[in-house]
Amino acid sequence: MYDILAGMRVIEASSFVAAPSCALHLAQLGAEVVRIDPIGGGPDYRRWPRLGEHSLYWEGLQKGKRSIAINLREAEGRELAVRLITAPGEQAGLFVTNFPREGFLSHERLCRHRPDLVTVRVQGWADGRSGLDYTINAVTGYPLNTGPEGTDGPVNHVMPGWDLLTGALGAMHLLAAERHRRATGEGQEIALPLSSVAFSALGALGQIAEVEVLDEDRPRLGNNVFGAFGRDFRSRDGRDLMIVAVTAKQWTSVVQALDIGGEIAAIERERGVDLTPDEGLRYEHREAINPVVARAVAERDFAALAARFDETGVCWGPYQNLSETMATHPELQPGNPMMGTITQPSGATYRAPGSPAWYSRSPRRPVRPAPALGADSFSVLGDVLGMDSAAVGDLHARGIVADTAPGAA
Fold first, then answer.
1. Would you say 362 and 2 are in contact if contact means Cβ atoms under 8 Å apart?
2. Would strands 240-245 and 188-193 be described as parallel, antiparallel, or unpaired?
3. pTM reported for the whole predicted model
4. 195 lies in the same domain as 248
5. Catalytic: 217?
């Protein structure tokens, strides 16, 4: 956590990954992020992985935020949400959501109360259709060029990459729009569809041009890295590791570490190529290179390979499950300033990361836990709308706001 955005207030009404992660980035930079949660929790409030009835997933995405629980089924509750989103303040009037573009939280309706409102609205498809990371990814081609060579059928990814990328871009675009507002006084809505993020990424990586100009779809390559040398290999004692050589230095380090210079030179002479300066040639001739590397790796135990690779500067990594990584990797240990040990609303105490960025002139603050659902209902209404305890108590008594979900810790 940092204090770089201290003083900025962002209201969030969202669920699942992309929009909550957008607001999480802002909270980790010091913005006050206030979540508007339905009483009892939204559709992702009990998502897996869970500890009993508590979602560890939900806790992870809501770190450092505040939560007000509002009965959004009632007109009075919806009016209260609108007042919070459009509350005055030079650094307020910033809204993150994945609610539909139409309805009581439409930008057009909200602007009647605050014309300079900045809204970041995460969508599935650009035409407004419902879409999730997994359905967006289905049309990118990735599931059909992921998996073993020569196989059929799609391979879905595990990590929701489009969600996470959309969340990071959402935070960037909100800050850009807030800067524009400071310069011009103009607010605006930023529509950020997952589909547009995915297609933009495909274009940036040359894959749209690959199809349109080269007239070819990328084939399945198994664990080979496209366009460079890179693959999984197995040591003599049965450990799997990934070796990649994109740059010339990385490639010469692999050759040196495995003592395969003679065999690589023979391949170069036979094929009339120089494999050092061009990563594409290493990809093109992988059927000759890979067996040489595989044999050299298989002749050595993992510990010896690790020591030699680190000594010579090979770009590599061991395959291991997250439990092993958490037990050994220094970045995940409590001594790393990015990591904190916090007690979450579930009652569990565990390691949690703050911002992944490292600022040279701004001190890092401790990681803060997620709020219990509705934990800040009373204080938010007082701080943001200036309501006194009697007025808030009346809303609470009539079920318009709540301070905890039924059964919540």
1. yes
2. unpaired
3. 0.95
4. no
5. no
Candidate list 163, 215, 232, 388, residue with the active-site label: 163
Q: What confidence tens digit (pLDDT) does each residue in 157-215 have?
A: 999 999 999 999 999 999 999 999 999 999 999 999 999 999 999 999 999 999 999 99
Q: What is the pLDDT of residues 204-256, one digit of tens each?
A: 999 999 999 999 999 999 999 999 999 999 999 999 999 999 999 999 999 99
Amino acid letter, residue 282: R
The alpha helices in 151-192, defined as continuous H runs, are 161-184
Mark whether 361 and 308 lie in a shared domain: no
Q: CA 230: distance to chain centroid?
A: 25
Distances (CA, A) of 146 to 24, 141, 143, 223, 407: 30, 9, 5, 8, 43
The Cα 331–Cα 311 span in angstroms is 20
Distance of CA 355 to the CA centre of its chain: 12
- Looking at the domain assignment, is residue 224 inside a domain? no
Residue 229 lies in a domain: no
- Average pLDDT along the chain: 97
Residues 350 and 262 in one domain: no
d(CA 261, CA 292): 10
Is the per-residue pLDDT at 64 higher than 70? Answer: yes
- Domain harbouring 83, CATH code: 3.40.50.10540
Q: Do both 392 and 256 map to the same domain?
A: no
Predicted confidence at residue 408, as pLDDT, reads 41
Q: Record the tokens describing residue 407, joined without a space.
A: 């059964």
Residue 114, strand partner residues: none
